[in-house]
Design a protein that fits this description.
By secondary structure, the chain is α/β, with parallel strands linked by helices. The protein folds into two domains: about 25-110 and about 295-315, NAD(P)-binding Rossmann-like Domain (Rossmann fold, 3-Layer(aba) Sandwich), CATH 3.40.50.720; about 115-285, NAD(P)-binding Rossmann-like Domain (Rossmann fold), CATH 3.40.50.720. The chain has helices spanning about 35-40, 65-75, 90-95, 115-130, 130-135, 160-170, 200, 225-230, 250-255, 280, 295-315, and strands spanning about 25-30, 55-60, 80, 105, 155, 175-180, 190-195, 210, 235-240, 260-265, 285. The strands form two sheets. A seven-stranded parallel β-sheet has the order 7-6-5-8-9-10-11. It has a four-stranded parallel β-sheet with strand order 1-2-3-4, with helices on one face. About 45% of the residues are buried. Keywords: NAD, Oxidoreductase.
Amino acid sequence: MRQQHRDPLSGSGTTPSPRPEPGQIAVLPSAPPAFVEAVVAGGGEVAELDARTRGLVWLSEKRANELAEVLEAHPAIGWVQLPWAGVDAFADLFASLSGGRGPVFTSAKGAYSEPVAEHAVTLAQAVLRELAPKARHARWAEARTGTSLYGRHVVLVGAGGIAREILRLLEPYRVTVTVVRRTALPLEGAHETVAVDALHDVLPRAEVLILAAAATSASRHLIGARELALLPEGAALVNIARGALVDTAALGEALAQGRLVGAGLDVTEPEPLPADHPLWREPRCLITSHSADTSEMTAPLLAQRITENVRGFLGDGRFVGLVDPEAGY
């Protein structure tokens, strides 16, 4: 596999308590050779799931219920590697393991920061430059339209690996960035950092609003009709996180009213978006069908994360991408 991107969290592992017991590792529900090789590269032994299994690489978010059944039948499994940065598909499983029960979970959080951040900045520029309506018109425009990303005020919701990479990519554009996160703890590269309860205070300054936060019960429809109304006229909205962060109906109404210059959506609610959904017909909505991180981009990064965590599992106990089941990410 050709690796174009780097994992910014590589080498920054921490040791959970209690540390899981090392042992054989299973790769399920299927075992693609690249990921089996990643386990072996970390010094692991890949074997069929049985009573000796201590580690598990689980490669499907759509089969979360099966993972729950596997863990119930094999309580000796002490570590589970999940395939994506977002782990909202496993929310029910985490809820059933409340109180610190169950294995240590790691995800790919942070690993896909570069490709997803690149897509976020691409969408921001495409929306501001009005590429979607121009492409749909399929004729020479009577007037030149579009605005520049340079010097804009960007409100960035989220402070994880993707948000940090977005900050880095935005530096040449001389933007002012306000980061909205769980706490007001400063984030390197941001001009201002506020807690999420101050979201309404900063939205009126958001010429570009980029959503890069985890999907949890608390963040569902974080951006609804009220929040969209607080944005200045002509603002651009970009969502490369999870569709549930945005009230889809409210966004459609805001676009129809012409208050926003447009929206760039890599994710939607529902997903996939039905073929007859009004957003497909909205000329100022650019939808990229969850392609910010294609398998070609993510597979080498996930393989690297698996190898690093296998080494931690069998060696010094340090894991990258530890999941907090209570927080949901």
